Amino acid sequence: MKRRDFLKNLSLSAATLAVIPTMSFAADEKPKGSNALAYKDALAAITGGKTPEPSEKVSLKVPEIAENGAVVPVTVEIDYPMTDSDYVKAIHIFAAKNGNSRCIDAHLSPANGKAMLSTRVKLGETQEVIALAELSNGNFLIASQSVKVTIGGCG
Amino acid sequence: MSNSKTLIKIKPNTYKNGDVVKVSFMVMHPMETGLRKDKKTGEVIPADYIKSAKFEYNGKVFTTMNIWETLSVNPVITTYMTIDGAGSLKVTFTDSKGTVEESSEEIKPKG
Lengths: 155, 111
Hints:
A: Immunoglobulin-like, 3-stranded antiparallel beta sheet, elongated, B: 3-stranded antiparallel beta sheet
C-alpha cells in the first residue's frame, strides 16, 4: 500500500506542477514598453473625437500573410490632389495590437507632389494595420487591412 | 549611433524641373524596442530608436515625421517630392538617445 500511496502523491504533485506554470503565464501580461499607447487612444489623440471616414481613395498595401513579423512592408497611397489649398496634411500608420500602436506619422506639404508613404513595420501578432490620412480641410480618411503574422517581430 | 549611415535614392535617375520623383531614405539603425533581452546575459537591451525625421529641399522643410520603435530595423522610408531647381536635399534623423544623423544629396535636374 505504501507504494500505491507514493504513486498517488506523485501523480497529484505532477498535475499541480503542470497547472501552475500555465496559469501564471496566462496571468502575465505581455510587456508593452515605455511608449505603450492603445490604438483607440492614439486615434483619438489625432482626430480629436472626429470619426474618420472609410474611403477607397486610401489604398493600403500590406501582405495578407507576413511570415516574418519583424519586417512587414506597408505602402499607403492617397488618391488626392496636392495643391496649395487642398492637400493631404499627414499620413499615419497604426498597428492595432502592438504595445505601442503608433508606427509613423508623416506630415506632408504640397511640395511632395503626391501623397504616398512606404515603409516597413514590426508586427507582434496577427492584427489589423490601419492607415489614416489627415486632409487640409480637417477631414480624415481611413483604410485598414488585417495581416496574418506567422512569427511575431516584437520583443 | 556614430556608425549609423543614411542612403538617399531618387527614382528615376534623370529628372526635369517640375517632375514628381520618388525618394527613398535608408538609415542604418538598430531600432531597439527596449523589450528584447540579451540572450547571453539576460539583461534587457535599452530602447534605442529613431524619434523624428526632417526633410529639407534647398533649406525649406517639406516633410517631417514622428517615428516610433515599431518601425523595422534599418528603416526605409519612401515618399514623393517635386523637383524645383538645382540644390540639395537634406535629411536629419534624431534618435531617442539624442544622436543627430544628417545626410544630403545633390539635386541636378536635366533640361
